[in-house]
Design a protein that fits this description.
Layout: E1 10-13, H1 31-44, E2 48-51, E3 53-54, E4 61-62, H2 65-68, H3 72-78, E5 82-85, H4 95-105, E6 109-113, E7 117-118, H5 136-141, E8 147-148, H6 152-166, E9 169-174, H7 177-188, E10 196-202, H8 212-226, E11 231-237, H9 242-251, E12 255-258, E13 265-267, E14 270-271, H10 275-288, H11 296-303
Parallel strand pairs: 1-2, 1-12, 2-5, 5-6, 6-9, 9-10, 10-11, 11-12
Antiparallel strand pairs: 3-4, 7-8, 13-14
Helix pairs in contact: 1-3, 1-10, 4-6, 7-8
């Protein structure tokens, strides 16, 4: 008899650090907007909320703990969703800046990019006719000459200080097949223990393309490296590739991630008015596929998290 498929974890990445306010009027930038969209996404069915901070004055990416503190406690008070804080921040931040708030909060989960890479949306600048803030155009165009840094030493530092030191587990962001092998290295070194939560990412310039075959390649490679029962597989499709790839992931027994960090759209030519719009859409698709949605409590159990009572704030 075939094994019954697990419930599907929906993650929601609320704002990120890549898109800018000129790209969508619905991108949450202020603490109030981030809190409101995160809470609504959780109410719509997201079990995990992946959070970045932005400068309330102009929407630029921020690492300041004081800014995170304006919305994270509100989200925790209003929902039982797992709080997942970025350790990626942005390409302009140092490692110490990226870890400033995670080390303060000691959350149940953080994201962890599994390698240094070219990461760019500089071509998106060509589509913007008017910029709201002076920082936006050089920020987007400047990505062409920047690298997101996460060396082996950086990753080791994060695993030891935040993982071992704080009991935080990770959403391992893998943009290419090599990132899976990097993760396997750290498993072999004893710095990572299962169950692993692998977020495979498609459609970012500098990473793997959104071809469906790449999803199969990542899934089968992870099977070889970790064993099917040794990890939880999740899929992030950037931009217009979001819903097709997530549907494919669900059929393959995976989990899904939506949110305005990953795509500003709900459908062809239609901007998503909120992250919850995307959560509700993927939830409808999953339901039509006869799949069940994991609650935050079920997600905690599936991923071996320490529980919200062990978080510092």
């Amino acid at each position: 008899m075939a094994k019954q498929q697990d419930k599907v974890i929906i993650s929601c990445a609320v704002t990120g650090s890549v898109h800018t306010p000129s790209m969508s009027p619905y991108l949450p930038c202020t603490p109030d907007q981030i809190a409101e969209q995160a809470i609504e996404a959780a109410q719509a069915g997201a079990a995990i909320l992946h959070l970045h901070a932005r400068n309330p004055a102009d929407g630029s990416p921020s690492f300041e703990p004081a800014v995170f503190d304006q919305f994270v406690p509100r989200i925790r008070a209003a929902t039982d969703a797992v709080i997942n804080i970025t350790t990626g921040g942005s390409t302009r931040m140092t490692l110490d800046q990226r870890l400033a708030y995670p080390l303060q909060l000691k959350p149940e989960m953080c994201s962890l990019n599994m390698g240094s890479m070219n990461f760019s949306i500089h071509t998106a600048a060509r589509k913007i006719k008017a910029w709201q803030h002076p920082w936006e155009q050089p920020y987007v165009e400047g990505m062409e000459d920047l690298i997101f840094r996460n060396t082996f030493k950086d990753i080791k530092h994060i695993l030891q200080t935040l993982g071992d030191g704080c009991g935080t587990r990770f959403e391992f962001e893998c943009y290419d097949v090599g990132h899976l092998y990097t993760l396997a290295h750290f498993v072999d070194e004893g710095l990572v223990q299962g169950p692993l939560f692998i977020q495979s990412i498609y459609g970012i310039l500098g990473g793997m393309g959104p071809d469906p075959e790449n999803l199969v390649t990542m899934r089968t490679t992870a099977d070889r490296l970790f064993g099917r029962d040794g990890y939880r597989f999740s899929v992030l499709g950037a931009g217009r590739h979001q819903m097709p790839l997530l549907t494919m992931a669900a059929v393959m027994g995976g989990n899904v991630r939506v949110g305005l960090e990953d795509s500003l759209y709900l459908g062809r030519g239609e901007l998503a008015r909120s992250c919850a719009d995307q959560v509700r859409k993927i939830r409808r698709i999953l339901t039509e596929l006869s799949l069940e949605i994991a609650t935050p409590a079920e997600a905690r159990d599936m991923l071996g998290l320490k529980g919200r009572d062990a978080v510092a704030v």
